[in-house]
Amino acid sequence: MPDRRFDGQKAQLHVHRVQPKYQHGRCAQTPVRAAVLIHGRTVPGPVAFDLKGADQDHNKLSVQAGLAREGIDTFAPSLLGYGQSTRFKDGLDDPDNASLRAFRSDGSCAFAEGCDRTHNPVFPLDQQGTKLSTNPLAGQRYAHSSKVRFAGTDVWVRDVRQAIDDAIAKAHPTDGKVTLLGYSLGGNRVGRALYANNPNPLLPKSSDTIAKVNRVVFLSSFYGGTTEESTPSGGFVSFPLTLTDHQGTSDGWKLASGTTEQDCPGRIVNGSQDETWKELMQQDGRGRDWGGTDPPPPRRPQPLADLLHLWLEQHRRGAADGAGAGHPRHRRRRPAGDDVDHPLRPASGQHAEQGAGADQVREPHAPGRRLHGRPLQATGFRHGVRPGPPTRRGRARTPHSTRP
Q1: What is the pLDDT of residue 249?
Q2: pTM
Q3: Residues 194-221, buried b or exposed e (16+ Cβ, 10 A)?
Q4: 177 has which bridge partners?
Q5: What is the mean pLDDT of the chain?
Q6: How far does Cα 105 stand from its chain's mean position?
């Protein structure tokens, strides 16, 4: 991975499965078919392919449910850094890894906490100041615990390979192969996974992966543009986490310039944007409690309060000693010498959500995160939510790659 401290760490992929359910059992002559669905830049697998609700004609919005009714067993992984898959404590789980202010034009930095650069406006600067200043950063900006993009495409290619193997092992398709679908930026990840001449020595034998796929579907995929082999003139983005809020997610549904809603009536199902955000929050256990206008609750000093998700719990318990005045975000920082250098290869486990019938949508509520580096969207804060009236908060997180 770009940040070598994550190499060799255990990681987990969440795979959301929806399979056919036959009232009287599957007929012997009915073939078993399986598909692996790869999400795009901002929405994890279950939200992209198993969205709840229906349109005005009562057609369900879930792609996975529709495919299950056609007898296809589907697997929708959330790639590393998305949804309920691993995000790493010093990676996307750390709000300090949201972007800082820009470097000066001469390359110097005017701020003690550091500065950032970005090679793509999709990854904006100073989100610590614009998105997290009140909650959870309490008016401060902090140096990053990780100072590079979260992942490159080949990290997610490894995830795609594992998802294919997992689907074949669990579904036992008749032909021993899966159909592979890439949606939006997922198309790039699928294309790279099927690239026979991938030069990455940690991803050998692309031909073995190709042999496990019977057909490929590219849905609204990205094409063209630069690749990771070409380093931008100013370098890649220098932070791993990007955030988006409810409005930012809804803005992604806007039509291209020059096209009006009158040109495409009915293209957005009523309520689907709110449902998408709701499910994004359910998938992002930490970012859901970030943002908004409520400051974080005051805390007594907790010198060893390393983890963001322990804040509320520690506030309830109070500090054991109560000595000294401490900032709410005071914590022990990792010395540079603690970094471990391993070959580019984080270990990654898997767990699949065992599928039910086509009409049963499962959402395991295991700890996890969401989005590309952390767009202000989150769900399921692990240790409970702050009491009091609900406020408009939440940030969806997205891991940074080189492309949008």
Answers
A1: 85
A2: 0.75
A3: bbeebeeeebeebeebeebbeeeebbeb
A4: none
A5: 77
A6: 32
